[in-house]
Specification:
- This protein is α+β, with helices and mostly antiparallel strands.
- 31% of the residues lie in helices and 31% in strands.
- It is built from ten helices and 15 strands.
- Strands 1, 4, 5, 10, 11, 12, 13, 14 and 15 form a nine-stranded antiparallel β-sheet that branches. A two-stranded antiparallel ribbon has the order 2-3.
- Helix 1 (51-68) crosses helix 7.
- The radius of gyration is 23 Å and the shape is globular.
Length: 335
């Protein structure tokens, strides 16, 4: 049975990471802090990693996986340019901006490409643009909405006993500069010879939610017709699920050169929908998120029999195995 959507809800314990920062004030780097409402209805301020960062991490894993399966990549996507099909691609720019010959009903007509024709070319020429989305603004706006959706990955504020589950501290660092800095900052003093700075490190239990609308892979959002054949959509879907597993294994955010996160634990649930009803998500900020997802799935299966399947996992290896199994047996809509 074809898979329409997949959701991943997980608690992942990361220690001593600095994956997402706001910026720098003076010589002090600032981590991202966000306000949330916890499961008891209380406001809390916790460390967070933006969904943008996690989508960036997923795309970094996805590009080589798509390439390995022979799926087309635009020059910009191959170079990991965030503009994807728009970047380094003069032929595509000309297709969007200039008049050219189109044939319909045996008659040739010279005109500019329509929005649906531009979107069809985006799907066919760049599998990464198909999955991760892009906005074309060449004389008009044509958007490809991402198939992948991440929420903020946010720390749990405290456990049932009121003890904090996520903390951030600033640590003192020194970058030794053997020459060239003395005249600017103190000549022969310690401060003059060495660059000092403060960098954050966060540790905690983080709530992660992600949704994959697999049925939209290769689907032209304007004509509602698939512009990629079934084999191509299946290969892209499998690469996407594999990249989600790789994101759990290696969250390639900021400061990994010296603050590679310690991944201590990972637990969660994967829900798969084979009907138009969505694969359910419940935030792992809620202690009973897995029971809630299973209850929602049971309710949805009352509407569409066997439409939703749910699998729990208790560790990173088990979670990767669950995603790998889904990818191996993946069937796509309309194939």
């Amino acid at each position: 049975m074809a898979v329409n959507s997949l959701s991943l809800c997980a608690r992942i314990t990361l220690d001593l990471h600095s994956l997402n920062n706001e910026g720098t004030e003076g010589n002090q780097q600032q981590t991202r802090m966000v306000q949330i409402i916890d499961q008891r209805g209380r406001r809390a301020v916790v460390n967070g990693i933006s969904g943008d960062m996690f989508k960036h991490i997923l795309v970094e894993h996805l590009v080589p996986l798509l390439d390995a399966t022979g799926q087309p990549l635009s020059p910009g996507a191959r170079a990991h340019d965030a503009d994807r099909i728009n970047a380094l691609n003069e032929a595509f720019v000309e297709f969007c901006e200039k008049e050219q010959d189109f044939t319909a009903d045996g008659k040739k007509k010279r005109r500019k490409a329509t929005e649906s024709e531009i979107l069809a070319r985006m799907l066919q020429e760049c599998s990464l643009t198909d999955i991760a989305g892009a906005l074309v603004t060449r004389g008009r706006s044509v958007g490809r909405k991402s198939v992948v959706e991440f929420g903020w990955v946010v720390g749990l504020p405290e456990d049932g006993a009121g003890q904090p589950l996520t903390t951030t501290e600033q640590y003192f660092h020194v970058k030794y500069a053997p020459e060239g800095r003395g005249a600017a900052a103190g000549d022969d003093t310690v401060a003059g010879r060495q660059a000092i700075f403060h960098r954050p490190a966060s540790s905690g239990v983080y709530a992660l939610i992600c949704n994959l609308d697999l049925y939209r892979i290769g689907l032209n959002d304007i004509t509602r017709q698939y512009g990629v054949d079934g084999a191509g959509r299946r290969a892209r879907g499998q690469a996407l699920i594999h990249s989600l597993a790789a994101t759990l294994l290696k969250p390639t955010g900021a400061q990994r050169n010296t603050q590679n996160p310690h991944i201590v634990a990972c637990e969660g649930v994967v829900a798969v929908s084979s009907v138009s009803l969505p694969a359910p998500t419940v935030s792992p900020l809620n202690d009973s998120y897995r029971q809630e997802i299973e209850a929602v799935a049971a309710a949805l299966n009352g509407i569409a029999k066997d439409g939703i399947t749910v699998r729990r996992f208790e560790g990173l290896a088990e979670g990767v195995k669950v995603l790998s199994d889904v990818a191996a047996s993946l069937e796509v809509a309309g194939a």
